Each structure stands twice: as C-alpha cells, then as structure tokens.
C-alpha cells in the first residue's frame, strides 16, 4: 500500500529500524487510526476506511505488517545549472578603488560558471547607503533571479561608519525579503583601506567573487526548487 499526499509511505514486509515513527490522524479521525511504530518489532496497521493523516491521505487498502518512511529530500541550488539565470549587480561608487575590484571578481566568477554576459546588468549607485532601495526595485522588477550588492564601507573618525553599515545591511536584507528575490550581501565593512583591499583580490581573497557564487546558488535554488 502506498501513502500518497506530501510524502510517500511504503508499507514493507520487514521490521522497521531506526527511530520511532508515529502516524497521527487529523482531529477528525479516531485516535485508533494512529499507530506508534516501534523500531524493534513489526507493527500491524489496519485501516478500516480512508482517513486523513496530518497532510496525508491513506488509500482504502489492505494493511500490512510494517512501515518504512521514505528518505528525507534535500534541496539546494546548483552552481553548474546557470543557463537562463539573470543577475543584477548593484555597485557603490564610494571607495571605487575597492568596489571596482570586487565587481571584477564577481564578473569573473559569473563568466567562470557560464553565466551569459547578456544576462548580467550592473547598476552603479553613489554609496552603500543607496544599495538597498535599488536592490529592492531590481528585485521587484521580476527581471532577475538574484541581485548581488557590492560596496566598501571603511571606518573614519566619526560614528558615520556605523550609520552606513547598519543602513546598508538592513537595506539589502529588506530588499530580499520585500521582493522575494535573493539579494546577496557583498558589502565590505572594514576598519581601514588595507583590510578592504585584502578582501578585494588581495591575500584574503575576493568577496565579490565569493558573493557571485552565492548569488548563482541562490538563484538556482529559487528557480529549480522554490517556484
Ligand atoms: N563613508 C562611506 C560611504 N558614505 C556615503 C553613503 O553611502 C551615502 O552615499 C551618503 O551618506 C549619501 O546618502 N559610503 C560607502 O559606500 N562607503 C563608505 O565608506
Ligand atoms: C564610513 C564613513 O562614512 C566614513 O568614511 C566617514 O568618515 P568620517 O567618519 O571621518 O567622517
């Protein structure tokens, strides 16, 4: 007998091993339809009529001696299935000596993973504070599968750094949540220029390249599994 619905419960003629599994009836069905299944002995499940499990419908068929839960599904994006995926890249011009290197790293990664150049739009904004509103507009346009946000905020003498970092962070987060399109946070937040350059193609790698790969995976996850 097979249980259809959100999952598939195959009744097998063998002992169940592993953790206890219990099938609970929905409130509308008598508790007698529930069956706690022990991992150490076969369990007879007898269904006298069709009834609704929590999210499951059990067909009216003969019962059997044991139950096996189907395997858990794992969903994740693929970085090798990029055909047709479209990306927007929002780049802050402030600290351009850093952000242009981050952009270069991102574009190289898109190329390396076979994203077509015609499927990439780069949008320049004055500073990281402006990234969020543009990212949300791009997400809501439904033209892109992911939006990569690139900036470099470098601490100065005042608390302005905190204002810009907090605004950029919450702006990118809100853009993704409000648009439903993955918005990837590729904004460096550094104490000095050396830290920033080290993360824009220096000894600490290129955060732009890393975030482009994240953008590809998230775009693939949404396109191939979460539609
Ligand atoms: N100091 C940095 C800024 N400041 C500019 C702001 O982002 C914003 O453009 C301005 O406040 C007008 O709204 N931006 C950066 O990206 N990085 C910085 O270090
Ligand atoms: C992150 C900033 O806004 C910063 O560059 C501004 O420098 P300062 O705090 O010295 O005005």
TrEMBL record:
PANTHER family attached to this UniProt entry: 6,7-DIMETHYL-8-RIBITYLLUMAZINE SYNTHASE (PTHR21058:SF0), 6,7-DIMETHYL-8-RIBITYLLUMAZINE SYNTHASE DMRL SYNTHASE LUMAZINE SYNTHASE (PTHR21058)
A Pfam family reported for this protein in Swiss-Prot or TrEMBL: DMRL_synthase
Listed EC numbers: 2.5.1.78
GO CC terms of this entry: riboflavin synthase complex
Annotated InterPro entries: LS, LS/RS, LS/RS_sf
Pathway: Cofactor biosynthesis; riboflavin biosynthesis; riboflavin from 2-hydroxy-3-oxobutyl phosphate and 5-amino-6-(D-ribitylamino)uracil: step 1/2
Record note on quaternary structure: Oligomer forming an icosahedral capsid.
Substrates-to-products reaction catalysed: (2S)-2-hydroxy-3-oxobutyl phosphate + 5-amino-6-(D-ribitylamino)uracil = 6,7-dimethyl-8-(1-D-ribityl)lumazine + phosphate + 2 H2O + H(+)
Organism: Hibiscus syriacus (Rose of Sharon)
Entry-linked HAMAP family: Lumazine_synth
Domain of life (superkingdom): Eukaryota
Gene Ontology MF terms: 6,7-dimethyl-8-ribityllumazine synthase activity
Family named by the database record: Belongs to the DMRL synthase family.
Function: Catalyzes the formation of 6,7-dimethyl-8-ribityllumazine by condensation of 5-amino-6-(D-ribitylamino)uracil with 3,4-dihydroxy-2-butanone 4-phosphate. This is the penultimate step in the biosynthesis of riboflavin.
Alphabetically ordered keywords of this record: Riboflavin biosynthesis, Transferase
Protein name: 6,7-dimethyl-8-ribityllumazine synthase
Biological process terms in GO annotation: riboflavin biosynthetic process
């Amino acid at each position: 007998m097979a249980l259809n619905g959100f999952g598939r419960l195959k009744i097998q003629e063998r002992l169940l091993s592993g953790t206890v599994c219990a099938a609970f009836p929905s409130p509308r069905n008598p508790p007698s339809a529930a069956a706690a299944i022990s991992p150490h002995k076969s369990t007879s499940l007898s269904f006298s009529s069709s009834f609704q499990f929590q999210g499951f419908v059990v067909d009216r068929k003969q019962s059997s001696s044991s139950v096996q839960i189907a395997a858990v599904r794992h969903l994740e994006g693929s970085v090798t299935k990029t055909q047709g995926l479209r990306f927007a890249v929002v780049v802050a011009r402030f600290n351009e000596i850093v952000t242009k290197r981050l952009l270069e790293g991102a574009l190289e990664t898109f190329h390396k993973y076979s994203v077509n150049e015609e499927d990439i739009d780069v949008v320049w904004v004055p500073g990281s504070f402006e990234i969020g509103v543009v990212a949300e507009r791009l997400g809501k346009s439904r033209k892109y599968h992911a939006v990569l946000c690139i900036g470099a905020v470098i601490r100065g003498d005042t608390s302005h750094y905190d204002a810009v970092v907090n605004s950029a962070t919450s702006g990118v987060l809100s853009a993704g949540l409000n648009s439903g399109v993955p918005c990837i946070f590729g904004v460096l937040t550094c104490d000095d220029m050396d830290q920033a350059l080290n993360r824009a193609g220096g000894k600490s790698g290129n955060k732009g390249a890393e975030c482009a790969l994240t953008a590809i995976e998230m775009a693939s996850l949404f396109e191939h599994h979460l539609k």
